[in-house]
Amino acid sequence: MKRNIAILSLVTGLVLGSTLLRDNLFTSTVQAQGVPQISLNEGQARLQNEQNTMDIVKSYQDGVVYVSVYAQPEENAFADSPFGGNSDPFEYFFGNPQQQAPQQRSTPEEPEQSGVGSGFLIDDQGYILTNYHVVADSAKIRIRLHRSDKEYDATVVGKAPDYDLALLKVDNLDKTLAVPMKLGDSEKLAVGQKAIAMGAPFDLDFTVTEGIISNVGRVIPTGQRGIPQKAIQTDAAINPGNSGGPLLNSSGEVIGINTQILSPSGGQNAGIGFAIPINVAKSILTGLKSGKTVSGPRIGVSGLPLNAYPLNQLRQELIDQYKLPKQGVLVQEVTKGSPAEKAGLKAGNKSFKTSIPQLPNIVLGGDVITTVDGKKVESTSDIANQLFSKQNGDKVKLEVVRDGKTINVDVTLASFDDSQ
After folding, report:
1. 2: part of which helix (H) or strand (E)?
2. Any residues with CB less than 8 A from the CB of 367 and at least 6 apart, and which?
3. Which of 202, 319, 218 is nearest to 269 (CA)?
4. Among 22, 108, 136, 203, which residue carries the largest CB count within 10 Å?
5. Which stretches are tagged as biased composition: Polar residues (predicted)?
6. pLDDT tens sequence across 303-348
7. CA 231, CA 220: separation in Å to the nearest integer?
8. Which residues are catalytic?
9. Interatomic CA distance for residues 24 and 282, integer angstroms
10. What's the confidence (pLDDT) of residue 74?
């Protein structure tokens, strides 16, 4: 026992002693007898990767913008929720979304700063890409450039809540201070590539972090309705405030837009961050510039999952009567003029009351969508996930159970008016 204590004391002494010795070393240079002193040149000692990062930051950091958001005191509901504060699991996913009208105030109030975020210039006309959740419900937006303390008023030109993207416009930017960023090709990414994140984490404006691409097709809930979509995963440090900032490759091209983190500690970086692939933004940029609210592809139906409440509470005789399968999405309504209507999808005709305030009735007798392009679906999110990889004009093949029989229905995606 004494021997063990002696060994432990020796080890402890080595650790503490090393610390004390280190702290008490003379700071002057000591040259050993006969060994020539080496003079380190910082420029020559830099690694190639280090120099590349420094060159990228020097060349493109002026394209990053610091975003300050001002909102009415009680209106900034979406900022902390990936689902937009909407917890109703039966919200329409594919047409006729019900939107709650904003509350009217008897007396106007001055906007107050509600948050900060990041963005980046995409051209010399003052267009800026950022996340929708950064600017949602904002009463006023102001931006600041890297090398200036001057603030500019920004307006939201277009928004895409489903993709968590927004396009801002700033007039009269000082073009000597603003450097538009180059948009890359996120389809060419490979795991292991370098990734550089720029933005304002924790309100520390114009911060740079570096890592690698950890995964090129990670599926995560994205946007106001939390629809699962592909994202770029990176271990470059991303934190609150980085949202909307650019993720760059070693060529200085924007490959993604920083959007979310996975954090067991509740808000701090844990080495797992996500970015929206830049090709997603490029594919909807024309729509954003036109001033539209860009939605993800929809077929024009509302539906309820068979394995979710209240349908999983149905009596067996109703299941037998309407010949319902064990899994799938039961069509509740088909929007007039939609791709679903043109393809011949059928809604039910028998209404049943429920005890759910948000969903007073369910409709039986309609089609049940069981697969999209051969992939099983159990929820409206599953259907949305399959559709979000498509474009208008693409065809999707639905497997549908109708009156107990399985049929195939081809749906051609197209824009449609769902204003009703």
Report:
1. helix 2-23
2. 330, 331, 345, 346, 347, 400, 401, 402, 409
3. 202
4. 136
5. 96-106
6. 999 988 888 888 899 999 999 999 999 999 999 999 999 999 999 9
7. 7
8. 133, 164, 243
9. 58
10. 60
Burial of 196 (C-beta count, 10 Å sphere; 0-12/13-18/19+): buried
Please, are residues 340 and 334 in contact by the beta-carbon 8 Å criterion? yes
pLDDT (0 to 100) of residue 84: 37
**Burial class, 21, CB count within 10 angstroms (exposed 0-12 / middle 13-18 / buried 19+):** exposed
Can the peptide bond before residue 310 be classed as cis, meaning omega within 30 degrees of 0? yes
Residue 169 near residue 239, CB atoms below 8 Å: no
Domains and CATH numbers, the chain: 48-96+112-293 (2.40.10.120), 301-412 (2.30.42.10)
Q: Going by DSSP bridges, is the β-strand pair 273-277/182-183 parallel, antiparallel, or unpaired?
A: unpaired
User: Who wins on pLDDT, 164 or 10?
Assistant: 164
Rounded Cα distance between 347 and 343, Å, is: 12
Find the length of the chain: 420
> Token digits for 279?
């090709």
- In the chain the first and final C-alpha atoms are separated, in Å, by 84
pTM of model > 0.85: no
Pairing of strands 182-183, 253-261: parallel
Q: Record the tokens describing residue 381, joined without a space.
A: 């999110």
Q: What Cα–Cα distance (Å) separates residue 63 from each residue in 206, 234, 274?
A: 10, 21, 21
- φ, ψ for residue 66, nearest 5 deg: -95, 125
pLDDT band at 21 (very low <50, low <70, confident <90, very high): very low
Q: Which 3 state secondary structure label does DSSP give 381?
A: helix
